[in-house]
């Protein structure tokens, strides 16, 4: 059963598509970030069983919430704003944490999340990347280079 408070991998991708680093990476690879977001929304809506206004409004989670939750201050427990992670999202975040070494920093950033999403089995996320010809082997070197430059 799907709960409106669940955080799915496609929610994370939607949040990331507003991030400057992620948008720059996508542009460098020839993908328009706004078109990627339209594809993501189209695929999500096409796969939804039922829709109502409340569900559409609840679909998002913002990137600041994600980054604070995965990089909690003072070792506090993660706060997802009353939302719950699905198993797929939890696995994705564990993968992203393992990628922190590419920038040699202790904090998880948007580049790590994007790389983890590139390997997601979530059908909406995978289809979105396929629709724009985005593959992990192309994205990773761009993320690595840009992450090292990012403030």
What does this structure look like?
The chain is mostly helical and 151 residues long. It has one domain: Double Clp-N motif (Orthogonal Bundle). Helix content is 60%, strand content 3%. A two-stranded parallel ribbon has the order 1-2. α6 packs across α7 and α7 runs antiparallel to α9. The longest helix has 15 residues.
Label this structure with key terms.
9 helices; 3% strand; globular; 151 residues; two-stranded parallel ribbon; mainly alpha
Q: What is the molecular shape?
A: globular
As for the number of domains, it is 1
What is the averaged pLDDT score? 82
Tell me the number of strands: 2
CATH secondary-structure class: Mainly Alpha
Structural class: mainly alpha
So how many helices?
Answer: 9
CATH topology: Double Clp-N motif
> Could you give the order of the helices and strands?
EHHHHHEHHHH
Q: What helical percentage do the residues reach?
A: 55-70%
Proportion of residues in extended strands = under 5%
Q: Rg, please?
A: 15 Å
Low-confidence segments, given as residue ranges, are none
């Amino acid at each position: 059963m799907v709960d409106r408070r669940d955080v799915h991998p496609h929610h994370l991708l939607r949040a990331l598509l507003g991030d400057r680093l992620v948008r720059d990476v996508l542009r460098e690879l020839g993908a328009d970030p706004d078109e990627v977001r339209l594809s993501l929304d189209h695929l999500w809506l096409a796969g939804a069983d039922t829709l109502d206004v409340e569900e559409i409004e609840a679909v998002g989670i913002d990137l600041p919430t994600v980054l604070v939750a995965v990089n909690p201050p003072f070792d506090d427990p993660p706060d997802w704003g009353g939302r719950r992670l699905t198993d797929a999202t939890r696995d994705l975040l564990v993968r992203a944490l393992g990628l922190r070494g590419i920038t040699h920093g202790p904090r998880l950033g948007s580049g790590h999340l994007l790389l983890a999403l590139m390997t997601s089995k979530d059908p909406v996320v995978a289809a979105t990347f396929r629709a724009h010809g985005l593959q992990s082997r192309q994205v990773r070197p761009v993320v690595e280079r840009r992450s090292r430059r990012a403030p």
